[in-house]
Amino acid sequence: MKRFIILAGLISIGTYDQAAGFVGFAYCQESDYQLVDAKTVTVVTQRRTYSPKCLKVKVNTTVTLPGSSIHPLQAADNLNSVVNPFRSENYGHTSAQTHTLSTPGFYGYFCANHGDSDGNGMAGTIMVVP
Fold this sequence. Notes:
Blueprint: E1 3-7, E2 10-17, E3 21-23, E4 34-35, E5 40-42, E6 44-46, E7 49-51, E8 54-58, E9 61-65, E10 73-75, E11 97-101, E12 105-115, E13 121-129
Parallel strand pairs: 4-8, 5-9, 8-13
Antiparallel strand pairs: 1-2, 2-3, 6-7, 9-11, 10-12, 12-13
């Protein structure tokens, strides 16, 4: 069941499990987000996962997500009415994609071969905070 959840002052689509609390895209719980306080951040693939999977950055951070023919990068639909700049109109990006995230919110992404648009499998989330 999906609901709107307010997390750190942001609105996101996720689920609320009484035992686990907020569970967002890619099953990232609030405590899973790894804050990286840098101007640029690069997410990497490790076999069939992204690292970090649950990333928290500040507004105006430049983030690079990996893409390849083995792990084509696709963005999740706009999770909180924020346009996801990593979106590909076709199967998925087969090269790394870099964008500066200037709007607070949640940005989900997944491997078109090993994940899905619901955040299952090879997927990750970026939380952008003020």
